[in-house]
Structure prediction request, 136 residues.
Amino acid sequence: MLRTLIGSMLALGAAGALAQQMEPGEWEFTNTMSSAMLPKPQTMTMKKCISKSDVSDPSRWQGKPENDCKMTPKGKSGDRYSWEMSCPKSGMRGSGTVRYGKGTVESETRVFSSQQGKSFEMLTRMKGRRLGPCKS
Prediction:
């Protein structure tokens, strides 16, 4: 399930055209997940070298959702892209938005799940910023 959530934080390959606005280099991403199922919001920060080829194919660095998940584009407005996702086998559905810039990226994803008679909602906010050239 966590793989699905992380994979859906950004709009995956469907947002490739917007991601191309990103500048290759060393990036820092901070993800904050919150849910009534968690005792407190969980924050994770990671650094990643994003190459020119990664910019043209965001699925190479964003992760991929579970095989049963379908991402459906919902629209593009300026530098914002929105989508919905549905994962019937895992009982999950959600929606999100992402905004790409040369040196920043921000997204928000809401995922709803109903498994074994329990339902929950998780909100994931991600902020990324370019730190400079990739370190060798």
Notes: The chain is about 15% helix and 55% strand. The longest strand covers residues 118-132. Residues 4 and 66 are 5 Å apart (CA to CA).
